[in-house]
From TrEMBL:
It comes from Parvularcula dongshanensis. The keyword Oxidoreductase applies. PANTHER family: PHOSPHATIDYLINOSITOL-GLYCAN BIOSYNTHESIS CLASS F PROTEIN, PHOSPHATIDYLINOSITOL-GLYCAN BIOSYNTHESIS CLASS F PROTEIN-RELATED. This is NAD(P)-dependent dehydrogenase (Short-subunit alcohol dehydrogenase family). GO terms for molecular function: oxidoreductase activity. CDD domains: retinol-DH_like_SDR_c_like. It comes from the Bacteria. Keywords: Oxidoreductase.
Length: 292
């Protein structure tokens, strides 16, 4: 790619874990970076950390709650007023949880936060991404998915919020498959206009992902036993950085990266049709929520 110092990226969930290290990696490359966080104090601490460790003063913080369509709209209006150029959006933030709950728009918490929120955010920022692609050659969207997408065996693009859902953990797998299909559909719809969209698996990262309030009871034993297999967040950020910055990711489109290498994902039958239905149904969900 051209000099990253000329580029601007947004990284959601950048106050901790993979998101923090992704923001640090982009800042270290010289890019302008917009970090997002839900909590002001945690976000400010992460912002100071990235600025100090990279010496890059072109790093800023905005508050964003992906479990609220209204807050996504507010954020989009604020950030678009401040940045005339957007070269990349890293949809990193999300929940890994077996707990049940609802977003502020009454969507199931996990699918609503991990998929519907990033989908709406991407829609709101898409005109700026496409304008940047037209003026500067390309722009990129990176969706952080997971190998867990392979376990979304009951995925139905016409019913993202089945009730009752047999197992709460299915929601996580389905949200990660939706992230992957969203990236593929973005690439299909807008690739000719210079948009590159990819999905990545960060790996089994040692982070706050497995904290007790998200994975209670026996899950803590699982995380304890597998701790030696976990990788540090800075390594988990590498697939996102590869998809955002590498020449290879600029040549490809709609790719799923594992360990920064293209990998064939586990896709439903007729994935192109499924991802198109998913896109259209998600737009419908958001529109109906707005009218409620």
């Amino acid at each position: 790619m051209t000099d990253p110092s000329e580029k601007t990226f947004i990284v959601t969930g950048a106050n901790t874990g993979v998101g923090l290290e992704t923001a640090r990696g982009l800042a270290a490359a010289g890019a302008s970076v917009v970090m997002t966080a839900r909590d002001r104090a945690k976000g400010d601490a992460a912002l100071a950390d990235v600025r100090a460790s990279t010496g890059n003063g072109k790093v800023s913080l905005y508050l964003l709650d992906l479990a609220s369509l209204d807050d996504i709209d507010r954020f989009a209006e604020e950030v678009l007023a401040d940045i005339p150029r957007l070269d990349g959006l890293i949809n990193n933030a999300g929940l890994g949880t077996t707990a049940k709950g609802k977003t502020k728009d009454d969507f199931e918490l996990v699918v609503g936060t991990n998929y519907v929120g990033p989908f709406h955010l991407t829609e709101r920022l898409l005109p700026r991404l496409l304008d940047t692609a037209e003026r500067h050659g390309e722009a990129r969207v990176v969706n952080v998915s997971s190998l867990a997408h392979a376990f979304a065996r009951r995925f139905d693009p016409d019913d993202l919020f089945p009730s009752p859902r047999p197992r709460s953990r299915d929601a996580y797998a389905e949200s990660k498959l939706a992230n992957l299909l969203h990236a593929r559909e973005l690439a299909r719809r807008y690739g000719a206009k210079g948009l590159r969209a990819h999905a990545v698996h960060p790996g089994f990262v040692a982070s706050s992902f497995g904290r007790k309030e998200h994975f209670p009871g026996p899950w803590q034993l699982v995380f304890g036993l597998t701790k030696p297999l976990q990788i540090p967040p800075e390594k988990g950020a590498q697939p996102s950085l590869h998809a955002a910055l590498s020449d290879e990711a600029g040549r490809l489109n709609g790719t799923y990266f594992v360990k920064s290498k293209p990998k064939q994902p586990h896709l439903p039958t007729d994935p192109d049709a499924v991802q198109t239905r998913l896109w259209n149904n998600t737009e419908g969900l958001i529109e109906r929520s707005r009218q409620a």
